């Protein structure tokens, strides 16, 4: 947890950044992968399979390597080359799918039926990812927590962690959650704003490829988390994402990939009360996606 030295003062918030880039593979995905791979070993599997836009693939590959498990990663069209290089470094096999993340996810679910142990945004991953919520609750009595939404697993897992702390009487009050999506891939935003069922986005596109999930697996859980916490959703453009990324680097010395800067981009658009204590989750390191233009 890093206290803002400059941006918070300008915005008149007591602002903190939960900087997940310091995890072993450079993103928050390691929290869930450590638990998922531990369960794979418990179930006696020999190989794992996962669909990923990049970060989860790298994380699953790394932890599978530690566990001496074979690993296959299915990536959508347009996956970031640097992330693919990271996946290969851990010894995993990469398979390209001619389509978006949703198509890759469907493909691995089919493979799961043939004996490959499926990893991804599922039950056991949530149990590792909720530790983000634990750590925020331990350190900051926040009013708001801003989180990117891709598959919706992070924000729903954070909500699970906060509720558990509340039930154990380790937290007096629960922060409001604010989900942030790119306007080129915004199914949760649309459902929340229009108070309708979530509808998949066809041909999603955003510079924040790590959250480019047109049919989020945990979208309904994300919506429920936002409603129960009395929070809300923002959507931001690619230009706004890159502006936030630049601010993080130049004002705070934190280099984030575009998806990691989405939470700050959402805060910059929000109308929450000045003086609020705010946490922005920065989900991944900038070296994963170093380009700076739309």
Describe what this molecule looks like in 3D.
The protein is of the alpha/beta class and 294 residues long. It folds into two domains: 2-27 and 126-288, 3-Layer(aba) Sandwich (Rossmann fold); 29-121, 3-Layer(aba) Sandwich (Rossmann fold), CATH 3.40.50. It contains twelve helices and ten strands. It has helices at residues 7-11, 29-42, 55-66, 81-89, 101-112, 123-129, 131-139, 153-167, 187-194, 219-228, 238-252, 258-269, and strands at residues 2-3, 14-19, 47-51, 70-75, 93-96, 117-119, 144-148, 176-182, 232-236, 277-282. The strands form two sheets. A six-stranded mixed beta sheet has the order 1-2-10-7-8-9, sandwiched between helices. It has a four-stranded parallel beta sheet with strand order 5-4-3-6, sandwiched between helices. Strand 7 (144-148), helix 8 and strand 8 (176-182) form a beta-alpha-beta unit. Helix 2 (29-42) packs across helix 3 (55-66), helix 6 packs across helix 8 and helix 7 crosses helix 8. It is globular. The mean pLDDT is 95.
